[in-house]
Amino acid sequence: METRKALGELLAHQKRIDRLAAAGGILFWDEQVNLPPGSAEFRAEQNAHFSELLHRESTLPEVGRWLDALEAGQDALSEDECVIVKDARREYDREVKLPGEFVARRSKARSESFHAWVEARRNNDFASFAPHLQKALDFARQEAEYQGAEDPYDFFVDVYDPGMSTAVIDPLFAELREGLKPILETILAAEDTIPPDLFRGFPVDGQEAFLREVVTAFGFDFNVGRLDRAVHPFCGGHPLDTRMTTRYDPDNPLDSLSSAMHETGHALYEQGLPAEHPGTALSRAAGMAAHESQSRIWENQVGRGRPFWKHWEPRYRAFFKEQLAGVDSDQLYRAVNRVAITPIRVDADEVTYNLHIILRYGLERDLFAARVAIADLPEAWNERSRDLLGYTPESDAEGCLQDVHWCEGMFGYFPSYTLGNLLGAQFWYAAKDALPDLEADFGRGDYKRLLGWLRENVHSAARRYDANGLARRVTGNQLGTEALLRYLRERYLPLYSA
Question: What is the pTM of this model?
Answer without folding.
Answer: 0.96
